[in-house]
């Protein structure tokens, strides 16, 4: 074979995801005397670039990229040891990982793969990475790039702590600090002191190349003398960050006290004409209401009314129910969603779980084989049994005459449970390479998930159930793939359970580009809780103006307000929240009217308010809806 033929074969091996051929042609490249670096750049990496282009055009999805990347790494494992290393011209070195408490690593893996294909040396710390480990790894590897990922609003706040530690240790000027994930905006990246964030993996590579090209040599940047100078340079900045962190470390507790004090002094603002329950179910049925219902997804943060730690909130039914009762009483929200974390069902089928005192529980480690999945009986000792008992106690408290608010239970759907237990990258890869095993596991887990929904209804532990069906995302997988590996299991097995109990099917999905037709139209979903990411609008992220015309004939939408701003507790934040709330409500009401609807919308945040956020910020949104909502509703709807 000629040199050109070998290089093309290497690229084709990556495109087709053929591990064996990637190894075979990598070995042939060495035997033919082709420079191993050239074989990587003009062979393997070229194939990965083609797959990246297909991904950007929507012609390939995450499972295809994972298979391609596996072939890429197999070929690189053969070629890399033979590259002649020039210490004066080392490859760009990056440290990458998903932040502590967050096990979502699809985006992180894509960035890592595309950077590796571009010739970077990537040190992958994995997911659920302790903050200090990022700092240590950056120093040990004399990193040019530190890239931190998060999907959950409840974990991304740790990025600011990483920034603080980079300053405190004198490392900040030694590297490019990048942050990423669906909820991470350019504004947020700037606020935590990062160099930037990028909308996708390809853009991240271009950004990293441009930024690292301006760095001094690694040995110079990471010398003790340079670090000492940088440490002194940022001394004042560190002190300010620490002071701000100390002042804000108990924002949720201090604002809880303030909300309670205000309630005890003046009660709730503006007495309502309708009960919470009538307003919420009225909106579900598109009935005339006094105003739109309002419930920012303030779940774990409400534990501070009790007060209690997050661990207590997630494990003690009384603490959970007390938190829900306090939320409706003191904030005057229209409902309460029983979200604690996304590791409940995965922990029960065999994965480990950690319980930080003041952060959301998360899955620790993944099962090695699908056969390791154990489907338990729903009984004392399982997390879901504990969760159901919490729901029963919450129902009793929220149905009291003075409250009269509905309770929406929350648990994970089939594919989300499986990916939490086995690891998302593993499952998405196996969808193409080992689909029978994935289906076999999904059949068992779906039965368990259906038993959970049944148990909630049988024990009267919920007025409605919200199911987190996360993986409906047209960037991660095609509509056909989503239907095959999640949609049909929900449709064939779980939806009939809801119909049996005449209960509305409710979905929460904070993905950024959802297969709405399946999750709303096909499922017949009654209430859909969604997030909107303006930066991903071109890829399919939709807002109320898109969703109400398309789906309001069958579905009530809920979401959209950015929850990250609720981390702050100052007058400017309150003003921003008021403006955003009024603007959204005005747009929603006018769109409802244009489409012949009366009330099919719940004012909410797109994802959960972080558990250390400001309850005064939450109250600001609720009070704004109460203060102007009735007049606005009457003026627009009539």
Characterization of the model:
By secondary structure, the protein is α/β, with parallel strands linked by helices. The strands form three sheets. Strands 5-8-9-10-11-12-13 form a seven-stranded parallel beta sheet. Strands 2-1-3-4 form a four-stranded parallel beta sheet, sandwiched between helices. Helix 23 links the parallel strand 10 and strand 11. Helix 19 crosses helix 20. The protein is globular and about 80 Å long. Keywords: Cobalt, Isomerase, Metal-binding, Methanogenesis, Repeat. Belongs to the methylamine corrinoid protein family. This is Glutamate mutase sigma subunit. Its EC number is 5.4.99.1.
List the defining traits of the structure above.
seven-stranded parallel sheet; alpha/beta; metal-binding; metal ion binding; cobalamin binding; methanogenesis; 26 helices; four-stranded parallel sheet
Short description, anyone?
The chain is of the alpha/beta class.
- Tell me how many strands there are: 13
- The largest sheet has its strands arranged as 5-8-9-10-11-12-13
Shape: globular
Radius of gyration: 25 Å
Helix content: 40-55%
Percent of residues in β-strands: 5-15%
Main sheet attributes: strand count, strand direction, barrel closure: 7 strands, parallel
Q: What value does the average pLDDT take?
A: 92
Low-confidence stretches: none
Multimeric organization: single chain
Number of helices: 26
> What is the SS-derived class?
alpha/beta
Distance between the termini: 77 Å
Keywords: Cobalt, Isomerase, Metal-binding, Methanogenesis, Repeat
GO biological process, one term: homocysteine metabolic process
EC number: 5.4.99.1
GO molecular function: cobalamin binding; metal ion binding; methionine synthase activity; methylaspartate mutase activity; uroporphyrinogen decarboxylase activity
């Amino acid at each position: 074979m000629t040199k050109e033929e070998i290089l093309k074969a290497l690229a084709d091996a990556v495109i087709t995801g053929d591990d064996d051929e990637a190894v075979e042609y990598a070995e042939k490249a060495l035997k033919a005397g082709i420079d191993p670096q050239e074989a990587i750049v003009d062979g393997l990496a070229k194939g990965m670039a083609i797959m990246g282009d297909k991904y950007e055009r929507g012609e390939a999805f995450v499972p295809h990229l994972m298979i391609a990347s596996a072939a890429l790494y197999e070929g690189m494992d053969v070629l890399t040891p033979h590259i002649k290393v020039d210490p004066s011209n080392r490859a760009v070195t990056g440290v990458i990982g998903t932040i502590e408490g967050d096990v979502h690593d699809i985006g992180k893996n894509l960035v890592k793969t595309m950077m590796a294909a571009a010739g970077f040396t990537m040190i992958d710390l994995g997911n659920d990475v302790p903050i200090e480990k990022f700092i240590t790894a950056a120093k040990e590897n004399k990193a040019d790039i530190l890239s931190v990922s998060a999907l959950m609003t409840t974990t991304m706040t740790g990025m600011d702590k990483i920034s603080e530690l980079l300053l405190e240790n004198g490392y900040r000027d030694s590297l490019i600090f990048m942050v990423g994930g669906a909820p991470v905006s350019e504004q947020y990246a700037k606020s935590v002191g990062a160099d930037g964030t990028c909308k996708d993996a390809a853009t991240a590579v271009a950004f990293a190349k441009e930024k690292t090209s301006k760095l001094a040599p690694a040995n110079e940047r990471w010398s003790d003398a340079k670090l000492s100078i940088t440490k002194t340079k940022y001394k004042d900045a560190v002190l300010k960050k620490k002071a701000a962190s100390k002042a804000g470390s108990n924002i949720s507790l201090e604002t809880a006290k303030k909300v309670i004090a205000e309630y005890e002094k003046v009660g709730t603002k503006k007495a309502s004409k309708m009960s919470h329950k009538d307003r919420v179910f009225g909106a579900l049925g598109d009935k005339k209401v006094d105003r739109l219902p309002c419930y920012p997804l303030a779940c774990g943060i409400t534990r501070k009314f009790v007060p209690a730690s997050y661990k207590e909130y997630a494990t003690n039914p009384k603490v959970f129910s007390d938190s829900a009762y306090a939320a409706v009483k003191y904030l005057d929200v229209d409902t309460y969603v029983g979200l604690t974390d996304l590791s409940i069902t995965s922990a029960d089928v065999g994965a480990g779980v950690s319980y930080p005192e003041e952060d959301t529980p998360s899955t620790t480690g993944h099962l090695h084989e699908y056969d390791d999945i154990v489907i338990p009986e729903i009984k004392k000792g399982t997390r879901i049994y504990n969760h159901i008992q919490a729901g029963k106690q919450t129902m009793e408290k929220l149905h009291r005459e003075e409250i009269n608010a509905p309770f929406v239970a929350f648990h994970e759907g089939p594919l989300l449970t499986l990916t939490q237990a086995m690891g998302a990258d593993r499952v998405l890869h196996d969808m193409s390479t080992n689909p029978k095993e994935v289906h076999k596991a999904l059949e068992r887990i779906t039965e368990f998930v259906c038993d959970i929904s049944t148990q909630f209804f049988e024990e009267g532990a919920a007025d409605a159930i919200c199911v987190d069906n996360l993986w409906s995302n047209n960037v991660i997988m095609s509509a056909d793939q989503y239907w095959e590996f999640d949609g049909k299991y929900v449709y064939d097995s779980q939806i009939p359970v809801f119909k049996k109990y005449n209960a509305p099917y409710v979905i929460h999905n904070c993905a950024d580009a959802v297969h709405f037709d399946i999750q709303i139209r096909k499922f017949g979903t009654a209430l859909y809780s969604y997030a909107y990411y303006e930066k991903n609008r071109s890829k399919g992220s939709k807002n109320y103006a898109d969703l109400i015309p398309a789906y309001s004939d069958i579905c009530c939408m809920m979401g959209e307000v950015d929850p990250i701003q609720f981390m702050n507790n100052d007058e400017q934040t309150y003003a921003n929240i008021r403006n955003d709330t009024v603007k959204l409500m005005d747009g929603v009401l006018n769109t409802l009217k244009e489409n012949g609807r009366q009330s099919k919308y719940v004012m909410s945040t797109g994802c959960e308010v972080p558990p250390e956020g400001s309850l005064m910020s939450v109250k600001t949104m609720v009070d704004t809806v109460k203060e102007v909502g009735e007049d606005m509703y009457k003026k627009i709807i009539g």
